[in-house]
Design brief:
Order of helices and strands: HHHEHEHEEHEHHHEE
Shape: globular
Number of helices: 9
Largest sheet: 7 strands, mixed
CATH superfamily of one domain: Vaccinia Virus protein VP39
Oligomer: single chain
Strand content: 15-25%
CATH architecture of one domain: 3-Layer(aba) Sandwich
Distance between the termini: 23 Å
Structural class: alpha/beta
Strand order of the largest sheet: 3-2-1-4-5-7-6
CATH topology of one domain: Rossmann fold
């Protein structure tokens, strides 16, 4: 299964890094914060001793998990140094520049691996899921939070917002409209629901689950490593 051009993605995120968090909060009316809090509650119940947040970006999810699991080792990685600098300055305990397609960690090194709004931007989604699964201890979790597309009555209005309204609003906030045109387009191409769970199963993950959020605008996917 295909993905995105890593060189384009790195350049796009480097350009919008300084205003990425503000823009996301404005465009989602703060809903992205609620999605991360839901993930935080789930992770808190699992109580992992070690967490790897892949494609951590500016560290929003890593900070939420760090707050929920203060005793856990919390490591955030990203292949874009400009984004990772924001995660470090925001207070993520440990950060490291690393490519999610080739993680510099041993097999089974972490009890939990997360990716929030990052898997969608990787060069090969199936291979990325396999690589993240590789570094999870047996019985540990993979959790992916990402955008998806609603169905039914919301499908057409959301498609209009995503492709016509969002790039203009984000362009006004960041001066980088083209980066957000890419982001909007990438959501339509990204596997959702059972298609994503198929990637989890192909990577050997068990008990895979799909949790739609906000009528399907975003989704949480989880699986257990063997």
């Amino acid at each position: 299964m295909t993905g995105q051009d890593p060189n384009f993605v790195k350049g796009a995120f480097a350009k919008i890094a300084d205003r990425y968090v503000l823009t996301n909060h404005v465009l989602s009316a703060g809903t992205d914060i609620l999605w991360r809090k839901k993930v935080g509650r789930m992770v808190e119940a699992w109580n992992p001793a070690s967490i790897l947040d892949v494609a951590t970006g500016t560290g929003d999810l890593a900070l939420e998990l760090q707050r929920r699991c203060p005793e856990a080792r919390m490591l955030g990685t990203d292949f874009c140094p400009e984004m990772l600098a924001h995660a470090t300055s925001s207070g993520v305990k440990e950060t490291q520049v690393a490519d999610a397609m080739n993680l510099p960690f041993e097999d089974g090194e972490f009890e939990l691996v997360t990716a929030a709004f990052g898997l969608r931007n990787m060069s090969n989604w199936a291979e990325a899921v396999e690589e993240m699964s590789r570094v999870i201890k047996p019985g540990g979790h993979l959790l992916v939070l990402d955008f998806s597309l609603p169905e039914g009555i919301l499908a057409k209005p959301y498609e209009f917002y995503l492709n016509k309204v969002l790039p203009k609003m984000a362009g006004a906030l960041t001066g980088e409209r083209h980066a957000y045109e890419y982001l909007a387009g990438s959501i339509g191409e990204f596997p959702k629901g059972e298609a994503m769970l198929d990637l989890f199963r192909a990577a050997g993950l068990q008990e895979s689950r799909w949790i739609p959020l906000s009528a399907g605008i975003a989704s949480i996917y989880t699986g257990l490593a063997k």
